[in-house]
């Protein structure tokens, strides 16, 4: 329910502190004032503006919830504010929650009989569900920490100096495992209690399934619960499509088993770094597969696509040529059909003139018969030679259901036959002969029989033939339309195929040129590196050879000189050290000469040793 008034009738006070909000809406305490809707809307607007300024203040949420309960009578909105305030840290007595939940229950049940057991059950349901989800969340966080510690231990596996740190991590891991077991056990107990009291609750089923698959790794049992929750949700949506249904958790495992990822457990970057080597190796393998795939495209797909492109182009050209011949034949057929239809009309006119012949007619009786015979012969040539024989493959005359009356002279008797399909073709082929036969038998027949034969053969025959020709023309037009549609479809398909193969050919050519360019650059770099190494090695070897050529005669002498210098330097260093020692000893003994002859004898011995050392050094 939205209580915010779009047009505020009063001036909004300045809100700098939370206490200013309560002072601004204190007028609703007056019974006479709070009966007016505009005042209540104004107070609601002040609370909303205050929540925009202080969205995380729990006390303000509680005051706004009480305002919604007592003055606006909106129990659901007030309950939402109570829930938010409780999450923000506000301390709310459970008796308040039970009371206001009972008001919500009264609103939804529309004044039905309210039982305290229902409210208590609903409160226990929410309490159990909150505790179960909180313990599940804590268990997942502890599991994340445990996995991170295991990853760190695995990373330090080869480091022998990290033994002390490993011991600390193992102790910490033991404590984490104890906490995980405690949280998962409590969460499981709450979910089992919820399943006993609410076995068809969608949030409970999905939450317990998430616990099973994320913490316990019981994927088979979790899959059954997920399926049951989905079935219940579909059934509720089918029965009440407009009702708001609590669907529960759709995160973490993404409402299915097997969707666990590192992000789902909140792995740190340090823990994810453990699998970096495996990812790098997998990526290199995928790069190799991609390179092999490109080589397969260049080796097989490119030539095959080019060949198919040219084959399709040749087929398209041949189809166009073939269809061009068909179009020319169809146009010629249409012209012949029009001529045949015109001849049939003329023959029908002459037949009617023959029937109603009088002496006042501008043509004689013989001229009428002659013209009828001539038109019949022309019709015979047109139908047989031009239509049936030349283009019989375009129009299937066997499928035309045309009926005509054909007169046949058999043993001097005129027999009327009803012919269809192939008989029509035979009738057209023998039509001119029948007309000639009737003209020759005209003197031998009686006037009544002659009149009936003329009317049935010369009037019904051309009329039926004209009807058949019209049907043939209609069929021809339908065939032409169908052929045109086929040509359009074939052209579109061929164009799409041509464009597709052109794109494939272009991509293949681009890949080929790119691959060749990369190979060319790699070969050049390889050749340059070889050239550089070879030149460096040759330069070193030439310098070494020059040194050998210059100093072959003096190598041995130089070696002995170096050895003698080294020995002399060592001896001189030793002499200097001993000389310094005895000089110091002499200096130290000089002040002590007053102690007697003992010190003088020691001094004499030192001088003698020093002289012997000097003589030995000079000898060497």
Automatic annotation (TrEMBL):
Residues 169-235 form the TmcB/TmcC TPR repeats domain. The keyword Metal-binding does not apply. The chain crosses the membrane at residues 295-322, 488-513. Keywords: Coiled coil, Membrane, Transmembrane, Transmembrane helix. Residues 122-156 form a coiled coil. PANTHER family: GAMETE ENRICHED GENE 10 PROTEIN-RELATED (PTHR31600:SF2), TINY MACROCYSTS PROTEIN B-RELATED (PTHR31600). This is TmcB/TmcC TPR repeats domain-containing protein.
